[in-house]
Amino acid sequence: MTAIERNNIRNFCIIAHIDHGKSTLADRLLEHTGTITQREMQEQILDDMELERARGITIKARAVAMHCDIDGTRYELNLIDTPGHVDFHYEVSRSLACCEGALLLVDAFQGVEAQTVANVYAAMGHDLAVIPVINKIDLKHQRADEVALEMEQSLGLPMDESIRVSAKTGIGIPDLMSAILKRIPPPEGERDSPLQAMVFDSHYDEFRGVITYVRVMNGTLFKGQKIHFINTGSVHEVLELGQFAPKRRPCEELQAGEVGYVICNIKSLDKVKIGDTISVPGEKSGTALSGYQEPPRMVYCGLYPSDGQDFSELRDALTKLSINDPSFEFEPESSDALGFGFRCGFLGLLHMEIIQQRLEGEADIDLVQTAPNVTYQIMTKMGEILEIHRPQEVPDSGQIAEFRQPIVRVNIVIPEEYVGAVMKLCTERRGVQTGQEYLSPTRVMLTYELPLGDVIYDMHDKLKSNTRGYGTMDYEVIGYQPADLVRMDILVNGNKVDALSVICNRGDADRRGRAVVKKLKEEISRHMFEVAVQAAIGSRVIARETVKALRKNVTAKCYGGDISRKRKLWQKQKEGKKRMKSIGSVDIPQKAFMAVLDTGEAGK
Amino acid sequence: MPADRYGMEARSAYIHVPFCRHRCGYCNFTLVSGRDAWIERYLLNLKRELALLKQPRQLDTLYIGGGTPTHLSSNQLDRLLEIVDEWLPREPTSEFTIEANPSDLKDHRKLDVIRQHGVNRISLGVQSLQPRKLDLLERDHTPREVHDVMNAIRPWLRSISLDLIFGTPDETLDEWKSDIFEASLLPVDHVSTYGLTIEKGTSFWKRKHENSLIELDEDTSASCYEYAIDRLSELGFEHYEISSFSRPAHRCQHNEVYWSGKPFFGFGPGAASYTGTRRDMNHRSTSQYFKLMETGGPAVFESETLNQHRRAKERLVIGLRRMEGWNLAHFEDEYGFSVHGLVGPKLKELIRLGYLIETDSTLKLSRAGLMISDSLWTKILAD
Ligand SMILES: Nc1nc2c(ncn2[C@@H]2O[C@H](COP(=O)(O)OP(=O)(O)O)[C@@H](O)[C@H]2O)c(=O)[nH]1
Ligand code: SF4
Ligand SMILES: [Mg+2]
User: Are B236 and B103 part of one and the same domain?
Assistant: First the structure.
């Protein structure tokens, strides 16, 4: 294959709200360019992980190279698929950095959603050419004209520039193709400059080790080359490189402007960091591209083996998972209440759920998980800054000079009639409104600054239930702010259960304390003795409930043939304690650990 | 003792009659309703199963239960009892119980049949004497009918037992007190009381999960149970097992066979037999039972032989469900383990907490232990 001239390359991504048709459009483009024949086409070829299919969410970015010939000129189109969930903001930003253009795909019925807005701003921030695309115009209730107006009013994308397509039927795809070629500029960069290639994704292949996804910004990558990952500092030899079409297709070199993959003999994904820059070792080395950072872990939780399960099995399973997903981290920790386990950090709540499901689904491990919490900062009176990943780490109040929490900017898009309800929701959570904008006569975007801790657990669910499912939201972290925070402890029969502590606002503590102990009372079943559940701040008890002792637990009939069935039932009650921890002699089920998230808000 | 189900020398037998007029909302027993056409086939197959004994066995206790044995017509009942007489003869001193539905006994021909075949104990499925509860429990008799039936059978029966259910949805302690009071006015020798449990596979279960039926709270149910124990004792009934109360010399000898680990035969769908080491259970499906018997039998669905250790634990638990508990020396002689050796330190803990009472020679349940006894069994049975 002859190298394509840089001027004939287009690198772009598709940004869209979930279900607006990104995967379907990708399929059509692959088909239209003959990259994949209709017969080979399995639907939505870019979402190939089972879990993604199950959840219908694109989690990992992918890249695919397509070719087309127009008027005797051969073009190369590289489509970089970006993850569509707010947990993967950082990965999105690295993918955007590898593109010159973006297709903004909006459903012709649903219109502009919160996530769309956030992603368009991100794309504009990277100076990408944005092509507005209205999808699903085959739908009977399509309202493409209004949606085009919404895009113009809210995002400043001229109405007459939008391309109307149906990713399902293929209407408008040729127009879209020519818009891509005309409106997206070719990449810049010099093939003879020092090598600079951006790592925007990676995955682990059982046979080949790590497959690194790159966009060459400057210089040339070639087979046999010694390369240097600037941020991690490691040096490797290129064993194979090539492009995805959509299967791996090896080639001899990748030049400035091109997108592809590199295989070295790298056995663990954590050696390859998204956002890192690949160059050559020594004097000819290029400089690191900007924007690299550690994947930001937004939530932490403890994972412990359930009673009767093995610690080392859990460790092995976590190790295995982290090979495929280095963006979650774990380290051993111990809890007085739960024994030995791991503190794990995740990109977000969805990411946490995915990992937990993989552990239980693939590794068949029975877990007890503590309530997730965000990372707080504490400045001590000594002037030291502590990062707090779990409530147990909060020092005595006497040592705290300032307690800070992460703040996010939240964009919420809703039909007009729900503005009141949503404002109330945000105010209850101490939100500060910073914007309100009409996207169209009936759709409003509200912008708030809110504590991440108040957003991350259930804000999305709350928004959906307050807007009959119409509201959408997106957020990004904007920094830390001091707040009047305290650690609330939970005592079970007088013993502090460290794994049940939470950090909350002092003003909410009484209400939350009452809600939490009430919830715990429901979750903890009656024992042979009374169980007292208390919430306390420092040594001050703020709420108490009692789980009464069992009063009656008697099998009446036990005759003849029934004896063995009854015996098995009695026996099973002990074995049946899955997802359970005995603390002292009180059995605490998994659900109780989540009870501490109860905010005690009205309407729960 | 040969470990063979039909060859062993047991002196007790249970016969299961799997027919009822209607399946009550709380009942998950082995039975069919609305299938009276199957009764003839049942009699044929029961006869086949009994024939596996090869020779008649002399019994000390015989119990015909169900289902509702008295749901059979008087003629069918007669033939059932004839088959039984042929294969399972008794001594005059033997206990011969049949379970009966009060309204079935309004039919004098059925009473005559039962009497002629030497039945000397009737266990009446009364369940309640309160119209509200009878209605809820979907029973077809009235309190009046119970009185009449009692008077008819009392003269010629050795023992009359009645079953009472407490803890039905919305039941109050007062309602239950009325049940006990009215039962005490009847000429009964034995009472079995059962707290209602809502089991999987019943229509109550479904209603509970649709929230159209709400289970009685644990505290009220506990009060009902304690009231029954206290009041029946005052009335001269001995509380001799978790749910069994008897006037002196009227304990159910057949049930005592189960609880003391003695062998017994079982015939009919879902019936179990026990050799002292092995338990064989017949298929619970009536049609499967037929099929198996029609192809030569036996109709065994599942067998279980516990190792010595597990058997000893089971025996410990079942024995402790009798109020007199265990004689420690007797237990050790019989099963080869001391109770402490068998259960370990947990047992001392349960004694220390006051759930079990240990004296020099015995181990038994305290009242507190009785009330939460299932939790004790879970602890004792755990390895
Ligand atoms: N009618 C219609 N449905 C479409 C079109 N494009 C996508 N869909 C459907 O919309 C749903 C979401 O599409 P998908 O490509 O998975 O969206 P993604 O979440 O953005 O990747 C699927 O059920 C598609 O079949 C279209 O042009 N017309
Ligand atoms: S009569 Fe007795 S055995 Fe028959 S369905 Fe009712 S409760 Fe069950
Ligand atoms: Mg998709």
Answer: yes
- Mean pLDDT over B300-325 rounds to 95
Instruction: In whole angstroms, give the CA distance from residue A106 to residue A164.
Output: 10
CB environment B211-238: b (16+ within 10 A), e (fewer)? eebeebebebbbbbbbbbbebbeeeebb
CB contact B221 to A (< 8 Å): yes
Residue nearest to atom 19 of ligand 1 (CA): A19
Task: List, in order of start, the domains of chain A with CATH numbers.
Answer: 6-183 (3.40.50.300), 196-279 (2.40.30.10), 299-371 (3.30.70.870), 377-482 (3.30.70.240), 486-597 (3.30.70.2570)
Using most ligand atoms within 8 A of CB, pick from B16, B17, B19, B24 the residue to mutate for ligand 2: B24
Residues of chain B neighbouring A528 (CB-CB closer than 8 A): 353, 355, 372, 375
- Find the length of chain A: 604
- What pTM, to 2 d.p., does this model score? 0.69
Residues B217 and B106 in one domain: yes
Distance in angstroms between the alpha carbons of the first and the last residue of chain A = 62
Distance CA(B165)–CA(B129), nearest Å, equals 10
- Asked if A570's CB is within 8 angstroms of B381's CB, the reply is yes
Closest residue CA from atom 3 of ligand 2? B67
**A207 interfacial to chain B (CB closer than 8 Å):** no
The interface predicted TM-score of the complex, written ipTM, equals: 0.91
**Around Cβ B174, how many Cβ atoms within 10 Å?**
8
User: Cα A343 vs. chain centroid, distance in angstroms?
Assistant: 18
Q: Give contacts of A 220-249 with B, CB under 8 A.
A: none
| Number of domains within chain B | 2
Looking at ligand 1, which residue's alpha carbon is closest to its atom 24? Answer: A21
How many beta-carbon contacts under 8 Å exist across A and B? 96
| Cα distance between residue B371 and residue B230, in whole Å | 13
Per the CB < 8 A criterion, the answer to whether B65 and B96 are in contact is: no
Q: Which of A168, A169, A176, A350 to mutate to test the pocket of ligand 1 (most atoms within 8 A of CB)?
A: A168
Strands (E), chain B: 12-17, 19-20, 32-33, 59-66, 90-100, 121-127, 159-166, 190-195, 238-241, 244-246, 265-267, 272-274, 278-282, 300-305, 326-327, 356-358, 362-365
Q: What is the mean pLDDT of chain A?
A: 87
Question: Inter-chain contact A556–B270, Cβ cutoff 8 Å?
Answer: no
Q: What is the DSSP string of A109-139?
A: TT---HHHHHHHHHHHHTT-EEEEEEE-TTS
Is A551's Cβ below 8 Å from some Cβ in B? Answer: yes
A89 or A570: which carries more pLDDT confidence? A570
Of A552, A560, A574, the CB nearest to B372: A552
CA distance to partner chain B, nearest, from residue A332 (Å): 31
Nearest to A212 by CA among A229, A226, A224, A195: A229
Q: Taking every pair of C-alpha atoms in chain A, what is the biggest distance, in angstroms?
A: 90
| B347 vs A: CB within 8 A | no
> Cβ of B318 under 8 Å from any chain A Cβ?
yes
> pLDDT by residue (tens digit) across A442-466?
889 999 999 998 888 788 888 988 8
CA distances from B231 to A72, A448, B187 (A): 103, 68, 16
Element (H, E) at B110: helix B108-116
Cα–Cα distance measured from residue B89 to residue B55, given in angstroms and rounded to the nearest whole number: 11
Shared domain check, B208 and B126 = yes
- DSSP bridge partners of A546: A532
| B265 contacts B62 by C-beta, under 8 angstroms | no
Angstroms from B343 CA to nearest CA on chain A: 14
Domain that holds residue B358: 308-381
Residue B266 Cβ < 6 Å to ligand 2:
no
Q: Which range has highest mean pLDDT (A118-127, A293-302, A534-543)?
A: A534-543
Q: What is the pLDDT of residues B81-127, one digit of tens each?
A: 999 999 999 999 999 999 999 999 999 999 999 999 999 999 999 99
